[in-house]
Amino acid sequence: MLELTHLSHVYGNGTRALDQVTLSIPRGMYGLLGPNGAGKSTLMRTIATLQVPTEGSIRFGEIDVIAEPQRLRRRLGYLPQDFGVYPRVSAYDMLHHMAALKGIGVAAERRQTVEALLHQVNLWGVRKKALAGLSGGMRQRFGIAQALIGNPWLIVVDEPTAGLDPEERNRFLDLLAEIGENVVVILSTHIVGDVADLCPRMAVLAGGRIQLEGAPLELIRGTRGRLWTKTIERAELEGYKARHPVVSTRLSAGRTMVHVLSDTDPGDGFTPHEGDLEDVYFCTLAHARRAA
Ligand SMILES: Nc1ncnc2c1ncn2[C@@H]1O[C@H](COP(=O)(O)OP(=O)(O)OP(=O)(O)O)[C@@H](O)[C@H]1O
């Protein structure tokens, strides 16, 4: 279990990127969902011991993460948002090098680890290729392989599917799902589908604050009977926004589909709408914006 308590972070320029974040993150896949600038990367870097928060505490089991970062690092796998690699080095050699850095000193053990990981992430066939020659999806799978060196108990993955095509994204998510239920995996993302597909628990972060926490299915159930939809012309949107609490709009075959959150029938031709996690997310963001 990873416990974050009253975690805040203020950058030198005064930006409050995290504001009293308190979360208990159990074993399994945990989704941290938020828009650009929400503070996700700040939180991921803080958990990964790359920066020290201004305030608050982090515990992972018996480890006081801020006081004993080295102890956590031995148990940590981290795939940062901007995962830089030496472009001309092969996947095989780079993984070897990283395994050595992670403390696997015995050559035979290192070789065994590297080969098993290359098979696990399905990169065995391209292991001799320079990293620069791999596709975006392959590079992200390489990123997961390096994060898995040394059998970590805590795995932090920051926006891993951004920029992947749908097939590569599916393959990457399948790989994450396989990592197992016995470790804590935190998946930070702005893509609702990543969380919907993988995570039995999640939180929404916006403006540095936790806006919502829970199990996606329960959170979706919480919108039941309160969501309404109508398809309108784009030009009518401003009028609808003025009359109704619009939480989201999406285009459907060139027309605009409006979703409204209301405990009672808003009239005006709206029909009941079966919500999904995207609706939960947009309702949460709309609420956070109003509160701000
Ligand atoms: N080194 C820094 N110095 C000053 N402000 C920063 C720094 N890093 C991030 N910020 C600011 O902190 C806030 C949170 O940024 P962060 O990168 O953690 O968000 P994010 O949710 O990961 O966003 P994105 O999806 O765009 O990466 C933003 O307002 C950002 O501009």
UniProtKB/TrEMBL annotation:
Protein name per its UniProtKB record: ABC transporter related protein
Looking up Pfam families in the UniProt record yields:
ABC_tran
Which organism is this protein's natural source? Dokdonella koreensis DS-123
| Keyword field | ATP-binding, Nucleotide-binding, Transport
Domain spans labelled ABC transporter: 2-232
**Where does the source fall among the domains of life?**
Bacteria
SUPFAM superfamilies documented for this protein: P-loop containing nucleoside triphosphate hydrolases
Q: Which family does it belong to?
A: Belongs to the ABC transporter superfamily.
Q: Does the keyword Mitochondrion apply?
A: no
- What GO annotations for molecular function exist for this entry? ATP binding; ATP hydrolysis activity
